[in-house]
Amino acid sequence: MTTATARHILVKTEAECLQLRDKINAGADFAAVARAHSSCLSKAQGGDLGQFGPGMMVKEFDAVVFSADVNTLQGPVKTQFGYHLLEVTSRS
After folding, report:
1. pTM score of the predicted model
2. How far apart are CA 18 and CA 27, in angstroms?
3. Which residues are CB-contacts of 70 (< 8 A; sequence separation ≥ 6)?
4. Is the dihedral of CA 27, 30, 34, 35 positive or negative?
5. Is 38 in a helix, a strand, or coil?
6. DSSP class of residue 42?
7. Are the beta carbons of 11 and 20 closer than 8 angstroms?
């Protein structure tokens, strides 16, 4: 079974997600931005979600995690929880 590790930042609005994406693309540290802005409990770990397999996350999130290039910033990804920036840190 394929597994992945990823980190994410969850916010309420697409506009905020885009702002944070611009900050990270300009050189801000992903983990620091996650700790400061994410509404997910994973923010305490810099947005790190650990290892998971297909179907363990919501469909929209899974679709990106199991297709995007590793170590590239993705998003905004809209789910029932809000808007995510995410980065797949490994996949095997």
Report:
1. 0.95
2. 14
3. 88, 89, 90, 91
4. negative
5. coil
6. G
7. yes
Residue ranges and CATH numbers for the domains of the chain are: 4-91 (3.10.50.40)
Tell which residue, 85, 53, 47, 88, has the closest CA to residue 68: 88
Nearest to 66 by CA among 79, 78, 51: 51
Alpha helix segments (H runs only) across the chain: 14-25, 30-37, 59-65
Return the structure tokens found at 50.
């650990």
Two structure tokens written together for 5: 């590790």
3-52 per-position pLDDT tens digit: 999 999 999 999 999 999 999 999 999 999 999 999 999 999 999 999 99
Is the CB of residue 7 less than 8 Å from the CB of residue 47? yes
Name the 3-class secondary structure at 51: strand
